[in-house]
Amino acid sequence: MRNRTALVIATGVALTVTAGIAPASAGAGQAGRTGGKPVVRVIAKGLDNPRQLSYDHGRLYVAEAGRGGKKCIGEGPEGETCIGLTSAVTKIYWNGGAWKHYRVVQGLPSAAAPDGGFATGVDGVSARHGKVWGVETFAPPEAGVPTTPPWDKLGKLLKISHGTAKIAADIAAVELKHNPHKASVESNPYAVLALPDGRKIVADAAGNDLIEVSPSGRARPFTVFPDHDKNQSVPTSLALGPDGKLYVGELNGESEKPTARVWQVDPRTGKILGWKSGFGSITGLALNGKGDLYVSQLFAGVVTKVSHGKRTNVKVPFPAGVAVDPHDSKVYVSAWSVADRDGTDLGQGKTPGGQVWKILGF
């Protein structure tokens, strides 16, 4: 599963870019700005490859891609891949004067490097009014991954409730049947967004498209993204703006050549309306109520705020999902998103484990 898309390959390239970046820590009594600069608080530690985030009525959900397992199924371009049932969706919340978290569902398929880093599994999550949805990556039968439950959740949209994850729609089947982007037949559902009308939009990073899922579970092609610089788009992130438009971030871009785009899409028709460019590889998106855009850039190791054409950055190591509290505009981001709870070896010693940060004054 690790070589299903350019995402994990690109992550490997980022090793030397973000190593050594540390959070600007804030004490428990600090709030807002310190010296006019944003303040970072680590609100959750011990996560396994935390990816997309979703904020819902004071609760923050994070997709944990897991840490693989003990069964290894051979070597590919990125090395040995080990699989196991270690992926999860976790809820983070404030209670009793402290941030706490627990896994609302666990035991889902995951694949990772032998040390548990660079995993893929449940990579996307979206919560709306207490209903939680996740998307699980896909692996073809020839990869040697089991097909019996719970491995039958690969490539699926999942409805998460009462500690279980039930299949709501088959996302990979859309790619296998229609292949909207004709370069190859590959599927990696990577992000999901629940819309107010009950539909879900899924970004298929390997399929280079969006899939629309009706409230009844019917999945169909929705939007296909064009290549640029002779590379595929690789959509990785979704957000709904206060203007009612859908925003989509793509991986295709590097810090040395920041050409990745944030697409604006009509959520009713799937029509591409425009884009912003000039980003490194994008792995997370969010907008606040004023329309300010937050873009997580994996290669550059930053989260960028775009407000009235001005761009400002906060350093975050291996940033992934981004979410914004609509009431106070506090920003949340997954950090060390390529590491399991024990950290991963980047060749210069182990990183910290997966975390979620809260950024104040940004």
Description of the molecule:
This protein has helices at residues 6-13, 15-18, 172-178; strands at 39-47, 50-56, 59-64, 71-76, 79-95, 98-112, 122-128, 131-136, 156-161, 164-170, 189-194, 200-204, 209-213, 219-224, 235-240, 246-250, 260-265, 272-279, 282-287, 293-297, 302-307, 310-315, 322-324, 331-335, 354-360. Strands 2, 3, 4, 5 and 6 form a five-stranded antiparallel beta sheet that branches. It has a four-stranded antiparallel beta sheet with strand order 1-25-24-23, with no helix packed on it. It has a four-stranded antiparallel beta sheet with strand order 7-8-9-10. Mean pLDDT is 90; it is low at 1-22 and 24-34. By secondary structure, it is mostly beta strands. It has three helices and 25 strands.
